[in-house]
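Q: Hi! First time doing this. I have a protein sequence and I read that you can turn it into a structure. Is that right? Here it is:
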Amino acid sequence: MTFLIEALLSCLLTAGLIVWLRRPALRFGLVDHDGGRKRHGGAVPRIGGLSLTLGFSVVLLFSASVLSHYAIALVAVAALAAVGLLDDMGEVSARTKLAVQALAALLMTSWANLFLTNLGNLFGHGPVELRNWGIPLTLFATVAVINGLNMLDGLDGLAGGVAFSNLGFFACLAAFLGDLDAVKLLTVLLGAIAGFLVFNLPHPWRSAQRRTFLGDTGSLVLGFFVAWFSVALTQRPAAHVPPIVMPWVLGVILLDTFTVTIRRALRRRDPTVPDRGHIHHLLLRRGFTERQTLAILLGGNALLGLTGILLWRSGVPDRVSFLLFLGVIAAYVAAFLFPNRLFRRRGRAMGGAGSPHSR
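A: Yes, that's right. Below is the predicted 3D structure, encoded as structure tokens:
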């Protein structure tokens, strides 16, 4: 019950901050404007991430055990929030942002001593031990996940909804493992995201004047928490979640990042340069509405996570779960590369209209 009360407080604080910060955001230029790839009907404040970060931080100030246990994570989050806020104001280069993401990942691996040590029994011959590759792989994976969520921030409700789904699964897994500090932090985070989604998800009661974007502040912070708990819950010395569960839970983040990176590499394009090649752009171009696209991706993300957890709890061997996930990747890549064969055009191509960003 205490966790639920704290989550509610986090939700209300975040919502209140979004309302309160709207005018200062418009005054100081913390907004997203129409132009280029962006078409969303006027200036929209990019204060969702700032508000939810402040919201959950205030609630966590009254939890000594969480502050002690996750002090390093919160230091990394503060650095990411700072660079994200500057980027939302248009004052940070891609290299600087990437450097701060790498620093946050380094704090995680070197200071918190949290990194991948094995990938589980993927081939039926015992755990795949990473040894000296553990820290480099964790650094790469952490930055990839952070950027993966950041690149999904191209449709109202998508990045926040995916993060809510992922962190919600993590909260359930942490509760199963008996990690109460993790459950507390995650439920407070979920409350903050819920407070933001009220102003970001498309629904009949959201007026145009209340529409708010997550911004890089939010996507960097939430992406880091997704990466942190993906490692923390699978690399515990005692009871832990098999590592193969995490690709299922990460779902859309992993699949979209993988396919977009491969496509940009094959075309010899800078992977940091935004384009309109993400899965939500593909669905929009096939004639799906924004709400249909959002429902497909959030529903698919939740279904993938639930599938991975049920496979584990049903006693399915890691190697079988791994093979099934490879099948999911193959199907996703086929849909990505050959959309005309798998998606029947539902009307005139929409070109992603209404997307706030194109990562």
